[in-house]
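User: Structure please.
Assistant: Input sequence and predicted structure:
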Amino acid sequence: MKPDFLKTGKKESLKTWWFRMLMNWYPMYFGTGGKILFWAADNSEIHLRLRLSLWTYNYVGTIFGGSMFAASDPFYMVMLLRILGDKYVVWDKEASIRFKKPGKQTLYAVFKVEENVLDQVKKLVSEQGQTTYDFVIQWLDKNGVVHAEIKRHCYIADKDFYRKHKGTTQSSKLDLNFKRS
């Protein structure tokens, strides 16, 4: 039985159901031990599950923090790309995790992109060409107790702006002139 915080009024479409199935079997995601339970038709909400299993078990018998981190990896970036469309560039810029309590049972995460966040992001991108936004993901047990929080820092830009400015913020050359000790 699903915890109450996983119940939603949103529906899944055939397209998002199919994408969810493909993602669950994608080797890089499958290896995290996570499972996508729900993907809203409008791409604004996703639910994940992470069980304590052979794949996620760490040395002290709790869910490996790397599994929590990896299982939550691509979702805000993918959600924003699918919602905003092909006139935008979206990248995960950085992420951090804070452990609150060891995960000894199944954990769940809910990802939501609210309409007011989309409006804010679109406004800033239209004014500045780019923006960043921090999303917080919580891994919860069935009772709603937080076991870990992950902050994902996403970069969102107008595609034309990004193309014109990407050389100013990225280095495309590999510096091989390092000193050996």
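The first strand starts at residue 34 and ends at 39.
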